[in-house]
Write a structure and sequence with these properties.
Length: 493
């Protein structure tokens, strides 16, 4: 077998490693990561005549588009025009800054919204079919929405976008201008004496190779599937293995090795928690307790590992509930209640009957039942004294109607054994920490100076750069697609 395994053909459903030998080791663009940002960069650079190498650790292109919900947004798209919706990038920008409370990167967001309409039109013109009622302003109780309908996705979610991108990539592969090296990991950025990045060292299935490039793009995605790095960056456990397997954080390592810096740890959010299969990585989401008071008002209390409440359980805004969980020990809490609440309330477990809930207290590691609060605390891994004091305080609040957290819905005290606890763990499939760049996607040093020839786009910038600390509609995939496309269109060839 030849030393360098490049793509020779584009299969109908996927790109797979071929045996054709590389025609060169010198490229205009070397793109590390053949996913949401890297693929548009390759397509549009190739259309301008650039020689492009796409490197990816997986055995197929597409990255998180294989798993993503496929939600994108833009102000001033042709689907809006067709429905008489007046919108602009300026309006989109203002909405994002309002929703994120200015915690996102304004330069990256500005570049994104300016490029978003043309990016969405490119996808729409080449086969992306949004759901019939789209565009929309957003969805979900307790979440911020746009002021204008600009948010779309297709029936098959991220796979619909990937299908368009595959089709658009095919002629560039056939031309020979784009070559793809799969099952391969970039291990080192090569620099010259002046500190400019001039190439990449790559571990391929057949050994090590070095490729030089005029422009080196890091588009490797996040780190959510690397539990050790996750813990180091955000200070809490990863728990869930729900992201794309190659999202190991390699791009962050590459950038920092040549002087790049990271940001966004304080913007990490893990939702309001899920019932997981286990309390360690690689767990998966098992079931969901309804934490949205708009759909089910809470009868229970939520306590952290110290046995203390940390938020009013009927808080209407999801972002407030998520922020409260993000600062709790190990992103962990227990939903606590008693026998009378179990019998009197609708089941909190979404789609479950009371009988199914009862069965799980004898069979699932996240469900605990005990005759006393001391015993419940021991089983649930929470502080017993804290739990007893918290329950007593809550019962007083119920009796007086005066809760120090401001909770208004308190239908019953927690006073009738047996007692119950359902453990919730905050997990996230996205990565808030990422590489610092300027608005031209140039990787910056700690002094704010660009590292020559080195660029980054996509989730490797950190979800915090485009989402802030909240769910901002379409602002994961849209920046990756738009910024990757912009780099492919504008960097000198």
């Amino acid at each position: 077998m030849e030393r360098r395994q490049f793509i020779g053909t584009l299969a109908a459903a996927s790109v797979t490693a071929g045996a054709a030998r590389a025609q060169q080791t010198d490229f205009d663009f070397v793109i590390i990561g053949a996913g949401t940002a890297g693929l548009p960069a390759a397509i549009f650079a190739s259309r301008r005549g650039a020689r492009v190498l796409l490197i990816d650790a997986a055995d197929d292109i597409g990255g998180t588009l294989h798993l993503a919900n496929g939600q994108i947004s833009g102000g001033g798209t042709r689907i809006q025009d067709a429905q008489g919706i007046v919108d602009t990038p300026d309006d989109h920008y203002e909405d994002i800054m309002r929703i994120t409370e200015g915690l996102c990167d304004p330069g990256i967001v500005r570049r994104t919204v300016d490029e978003a309409p043309a990016t969405l039109n490119w996808l729409l013109d080449n086969g992306l079919t949004p759901l019939p009622d789209h565009p929309v302003t957003g969805s979900g109780p307790g979440r911020h929405t746009y002021t204008t309908a600009r948010y779309i996705w297709g029936k098959n979610e991220g796979r619909d976008i990937l299908a368009v991108v595959r089709k658009e990539l095919e002629p560039e592969l056939k031309s020979g201008r784009v070559q793809t090296l799969l099952n391969s990991t970039a291990t080192e950025l090569i620099t010259d004496e002046a500190g400019a990045v001039t190439g990449v060292r790559v571990q391929t299935p057949d050994g090590e190779d070095v490729f030089s490039g005029r422009h080196i793009l890091i588009t490797t995605g996040g780190y959510a599937m690397n539990p050790e790095l996750f813990q180091e960056l955000v200070g809490g456990p990863a728990y869930g293995a729900g992201s794309y397997a190659p999202n190991q954080g390699k791009g962050l390592e590459l950038a920092t090795s040549v002087g790049g810096v990271l940001r966004g740890a304080e913007l990490h959010r893990c939702g309001t928690g899920s019932v997981m299969t286990a309390e360690e990585f690689p767990a998966s989401a098992y079931a969901r307790f309804e934490t949205r008071p708009q759909l089910r008002e809470p009868w229970e209390i939520w306590v952290n590992n110290a046995g203390q409440r940390f938020i009013r359980e009927d808080e209407p805004m999801q972002e407030v509930r998520a922020a409260a969980l993000a600062v709790q020990d190990r992103f962990r809490y227990a939903v606590v209640f008693d026998e009378q609440i179990l019998l009197s309330s609708d089941p909190g477990m979404v789609g479950w009957s009371e009988e199914k809930v009862q069965e799980h207290f004898a069979s699932h590691p996240m469900f605990h039942k005990a005759g006393t609060l001391d015993e419940l605390a021991a089983k649930a891994g929470i502080d017993a004294d804290g739990l007893k004091a918290t329950v007593a305080e809550y019962n007083t609040a119920h009796a007086t109607g005066n809760d120090r957290f401001g909770r208004t819905y308190m239908p019953r005290p927690i006073a009738n054994p047996p007692y119950y606890a359902i453990i919730h763990l905050g997990s996230s499939a996205t990565s808030s920490v990422g590489i610092v760049t300027d608005d031209a996607c140039r990787v910056l040093t700690a002094q704010g100076e660009p590292i020559p020839n080195l660029y980054a786009a996509g989730e490797v910038l950190g979800s915090g750069a485009t989402l802030g600390a909240v769910f901002t509609p379409g602002m994961m995939l849209t920046p990756a697609l738009a910024l990757g496309r912009w780099l492919g269109r504008t960097l000198p060839v």
